[in-house]
Design goal:
alpha+beta, Glutaredoxin, 3 domains, three-stranded antiparallel β-sheet, globular
């Protein structure tokens, strides 16, 4: 039992610390995922599924086989007037709306809690409270992932940010896996006490470090969580020699709270320490826009007018299609057998559409020979104006030295015109999908520099460089 509980602590604690730190590395991205969840729940509560007539060809309707066909029903979501909703549903919708508006704060809070729970599980501090919180969190997230998987609502849970993409059912399986190891900790919580520090407890910390090193090296390609845990273990050992058990727990909690909060806030105020997204430094964006079409076999499905049996006919050879066949069969549908699925581009929905002419400049930007700057503001209405003078100076330098400089936003043309006028922007600002812009860079606004399609650098608005720095480094 002792060894089994130790294994549970190592597995649960290690995964929680990694998950918390990876999300803390990109809290803005995690907040977008939370907003998606809250929007889905609000929509489902405030709408009702209504069946709509399926579009059926007249020939099929007039076919003698029509009554025997199993035609799938089609539905659409219809909004329910707020006055017709019950008090409980209205309250939940308001709650999800409030949580969506404060998604970033919730994201930061969840990241910090995950890190603290993971570390305290590894070292065995306050296990009664920790076990309860672990159990409640995993039950809540298991429900979320099951709901998303069963109803196909959110395609990626964001459990490990962009570092590890999981399908809805993979996310649910991951939560069931964790639940299997959290339950023993919850049931036998009274048997776990990390104080006093002994060889057994040190062995658990060392085992967790080994497991974390393997996972961070093989899967996440980021050793920061290993160093974070190593420093925590060293501090824990140092505190154990000088302070009482209660003081050790309180001091460790305070230090972890300060460190995790600082790290999370730093990644909001600047950029992620480790960038897992397609537009990270060094990536060739031109290569990431390539699309590989699927390889599929198309078959034509006909109904035998006498037996109503479905007959699947190949499209590689049309010798079967003659007047006799057409007279005795009715075309029903096309089926597709995918031999090799399509490979979607990692960089997509990058259009840079001119709000006045409708022309797109996305390919022009990516294929520009030399340096090209992209100033990104997903929402101009919420964009920070800090260092706007630096952006105008950089734009002036770039456009005067055979470089490209453009802006991108999802705001309307009226907002764009007013913003450019108010801030004296001489560079064009194009329209683009908001989600695509947020994927490029987690800052509103931010700046991206590419050279011959390769990402050279990215800056948060708090770190916009001076024009002099750009002149010295990029000529």
């Amino acid at each position: 039992m002792k060894i089994f509980l130790a294994a549970c602590r190592v597995i649960v604690g290690t995964l929680f610390v990694i998950s918390g730190l990876i999300k803390a590395n990109d809290p803005s991205g995690f907040s977008y995922k939370l907003e998606e969840y809250f929007t889905v729940f609000s929509t489902d509560l405030g709408t009702v599924k209504k069946e709509v007539p399926a579009e059926i060809d007249e020939k099929i309707k007039n076919s003698p086989c029509f009554s025997k066909l199993n035609i799938p029903k089609q539905y659409e979501q219809e909004a329910i007037p707020r006055g017709q909703l019950g008090f409980f549903k209205r309250s939940l919708i308001d709650l999800f709306g409030f949580m969506g508006e404060n998604a970033l704060f919730l994201a930061v809070l969840i990241c910090i809690i995950e890190i603290i729970l993971g570390l305290f599980t590894i070292v065995g501090y306050r296990m009664r409270l920790v076990a309860w919180l672990l159990f409640l969190m995993i039950v809540f997230f298991t429900f979320l992932t099951f709901y998303s998987a069963y109803y196909n609502k959110v395609t990626d849970c964001g459990c490990f940010g962009d570092a590890l993409k999981l399908t809805p059912w993979q996310s649910f399986s991951k939560d069931i896996f964790l639940l299997a190891f959290i339950l023993p900790l919850f049931i036998w919580q009274r048997r776990i006490n990390g104080i006093p520090l002994n060889r057994y407890e040190i062995g658990i910390s060392v085992s967790s470090l080994v497991l974390m090193t393997i996972l961070c090296t093989v899967q996440f390609k980021w050793l920061f969580p290993v160093w974070f845990l190593a420093v925590f273990v060293i501090v824990r050992i140092a505190l154990a020699r000088r302070f009482s058990p209660v003081q050790q727990e309180m001091l460790n909690l305070l230090l972890v709270l300060i460190a995790s909060t600082w790290f999370t806030v730093y990644c909001i105020s600047h950029l992620s320490v480790r960038d897992y997204r397609p537009w990270r430094n060094g990536n060739n964006v031109r290569e990431l826009t390539q699309y590989t079409p699927e390889v599929a076999e198309i078959v034509m499905v006909y109904l035998d007018n006498s037996t109503c049996e479905e007959k699947k006919m190949p499209t590689t050879d049309w010798s079967w299609l003659d007047s006799t066949f057409e007279a005795t069969h009715t075309f029903y549908k096309q089926d597709k057998k995918v031999i090799k699925p399509a490979i979607e581009p990692k960089v997509k929905d990058f259009t840079l559409e001119d709000p006045n002419t409708g022309e797109t400049h996305g390919e022009e930007f990516i294929n520009f020979p030399g340096y090209a700057f992209l100033w990104i503001a997903p929402k101009l209405e919420k964009a920070s104006l800090r260092h706007m003078d630096r952006i105008n100076a950089i734009a002036e330098y770039a456009m005067g030295n055979n470089m490209m400089f453009a802006g991108a936003t999802s705001s309307t043309s009226d907002v764009i015109d007013k913003f450019r006028h108010d801030n004296q922007n001489m560079f064009p600002i194009y329209q683009n999908d908001e989600k695509a812009l947020k994927t490029i860079l987690r800052s509103n606004p931010g700046l991206v520099l590419i050279r011959d399609g390769v990402v050279v650098n990215k800056w948060h608005y708090n770190d916009f460089p001076k024009a002099e720095t750009i002149r010295e480094k990029y000529r």
